[in-house]
Amino acid sequence: MQKFTVPTKEEVSENNQTIFDNLQKGLGFVPNLYAYYAKNDTALGDYLALQNRKSTLKAKEREVINLVVSQVNGCRYCQSAHTVLGKMNGFSAEEVLEIRGGSASFDSKLDALTKFTKSVVEHRGRATEEAKAAFFEAGYNEANLIDAVIVIGDKTISNYIHNLTGFEIDFPLAPELEHTMV
Prior knowledge:
There is one protein chain. This protein is mainly alpha-helical. The chain folds into 2 domains: 10-51, no CATH class; 59-165, AhpD-like, CATH 1.20.1290. The protein has helices spanning 14-27, 32-37, 43-51, 59-72, 76-88, 93-100, 108-122, 129-137, 142-165. The two termini are 27 Å apart.
């Protein structure tokens, strides 16, 4: 069985070492997921550019998408990271679990986004008409749809990288859901 390891700063390119330094300054550590991307000379910078692009969606909305996608794709690393980030963006522990479970009863607009995201991911881009209608009825527009799909793509990349490699999770482990949504 292939063993996947996370590189140290000394094992990555000079360009990626600079990115590691910036991550260390900004986050206080270099998450294993980001470090793993640095095995490729350009992937870490490219991924961070995608992740940090301007968006019509608020940070809280992007976290909803990240939580739902990570749950549907079964990525424990991203579930754990985004549980922490979701709380940093103002969600309670209970709200994070509810979002991961596929709804957000505490906020009708976020509930529509949660259900839309779940439908997009489960149906590989072919969300149900009901989920699309609720998304637009909640006040989202086509620019928001584009940004939602970009965030779904961003998170799917990370989910797949970790699901393929299984390197160590360096965030507090997110609780398992009692009832899985997939």
